[in-house]
Specification:
19 helices; Growth Hormone, Chain: A; mainly alpha; globular; single chain; 0% strand
Length: 409
């Protein structure tokens, strides 16, 4: 199979970074308990992770094709390898900041390269959508694995959890070696020649109608996904009255359902138009919220603390399964727009995807958090119906625009 080596490398890299990126909540908790920082001090780790992703993506998106996608990923893996090592030997809150700074910078390089290479090593829109969905699905497997890997190193020794970074270093090294010896045949040049022209090109992309509509769509989707992902454990604890441990365990179902949904999407997109699949998934997702939330509002007072999965009510399993249906939306949107652009614009477009996805995730989490506090968790999740409804409109617009003609800048 052509480019099989580089495809495996893309899967490995995404899996490793899924673990690293989504360990932030775990590390925040450990920083409070082990390094005795306050909640507000520990919360800055989110910024140390997210801001470098957005900033690096903006400045290198158009430059990366000339530097080389494979080189970019190798540099990213090297940076995060040493970031993990310094965490082990530093063992202080300062080094957690450096760790997530390295993760943010590295992931920007990885995601830009992965999204651009998908366009290079696939030959049709359906093939592009299938590979995009399966890689994003593997990312979700990594997220779920993070919740299993880190607790495996917990013990009475307060420093034992740091040993997880030795395992992560091994995974990173395997990814590095595999990528180093992987071959990919491509020749794509950036259409700009200087850094200034690169940045201008990225900004000019925003005013392209298809790109502008897509950016809004990506923003809306990530607002939905992150709103659920960030607050589902808290929702489980306060609304379903699960114990703290069970709340986290049940949230893993959401991550696994996201993974399964994206793998299934990779299969289905070869057999049906992407736009039908996305709209069906949005409607079902909205239906799950409308079916579950009213019952929780009515029955919450009858619930008692739940410690075991065997005691979890049916609704407790149904809600996280919403991930199965929102899962296909993001990769299919990304694939549709990227495959409609010239391959020389895939890198700057990927930069815009990363930047506006980060903004959407941040705002979504913030809005749900504010609503959770003011009107309660069950009512807060009703807010997600708004971006879901708007997303259907923008998905139809993207489908119409992408069929007209190839976009040039």
């Amino acid at each position: 199979m052509k480019n099989i080596g580089i495809k495996i490398s893309l899967y490995l890299n995404y899996f490793v970074f899924a673990i690293l990126l989504n360990s932030v909540g775990i590390v925040i908790s450990k920083s409070i308990n082990v390094y005795f920082v306050t909640e507000s001090q520990a919360s800055v780790l989110e910024a140390f992770k997210d801001l470098p992703i957005a900033i690096v993506s903006f400045f290198i998106a158009s430059f990366l094709p000339r530097f080389g996608y494979k080189k970019g990923m190798l540099v990213g893996l090297a940076i995060v390898f040493f970031g993990c090592l310094q965490m082990v030997f530093g063992n202080a809150f300062l080094y957690t900041k450096i760790l997530f700074l390295s993760i943010g910078v590295s992931f920007a390089l990885i995601k830009l390269s992965v999204y651009s290479l998908i366009g290079i090593i696939t030959n049709s829109k359906k093939e592009h959508a299938a590979l995009m969905s399966s890689i994003e699905g593997f990312f979700m497997v990594g997220i779920a694995f993070a919740y299993i890997l880190f607790p495996a190193f917990y013990s009475d020794d307060v420093n034992s959890w740091l040993n997880v970074y030795y395992v992560l270093c091994v995974l990173i090294a395997i990814s590095f070696v595999f990528l180093l010896f992987s071959k990919v045949e491509y020749q794509v040049e950036s259409s700009a020649s200087t850094l200034k022209e690169d940045l201008i090109q990225s900004v000019k992309l925003i005013i392209v109608p298809l790109v502008l509509v897509f950016i809004i769509s990506a923003f809306l989707f990530v607002m939905i996904e992150q709103g659920i992902m960030t607050w589902l454990p808290r929702f489980n604890e306060k609304i379903f009255l699960f114990s703290e441990n069970l709340s986290v365990q049940m949230a893993v179902i959401f991550a696994l359902s996201l993974a399964l949904g994206r793998f299934i999407a990779g299969f289905l997109t070869k057999r049906m138009p992407w736009v039908y699949l996305v709209i069906i998934c949005i409607v079902i997702s909205g239906g799950i919220l409308l079916g579950v939330l009213p019952q929780l509002s009515e029955n919450i007072e009858t619930l008692s603390i739940i410690e075991n999965t065997t005691d979890v009510p049916v609704l407790g399993f149904i809600l996280p399964l919403i991930g199965l249906f929102i899962a296909p939306i993001y990769p299919l949107l990304n694939s549709t727009v990227l495959s409609s652009l010239p391959k020389s614009l895939h890198s700057p477009m990927s930069g815009l995807i990363i930047i506006f996805s980060a903004i959407g995730g941040t705002i979504g989490s913030r809005v749900i958090g504010e609503l959770f506090e003011s009107i309660g968790g069950a009512n807060a999740f009703y807010f997600l119906l708004i971006p879901m409804s708007l997303l259907i409109v923008f998905v139809l617009l993207i489908d119409r625009m992408s069929k007209k003609q190839e976009v040039t800048v």
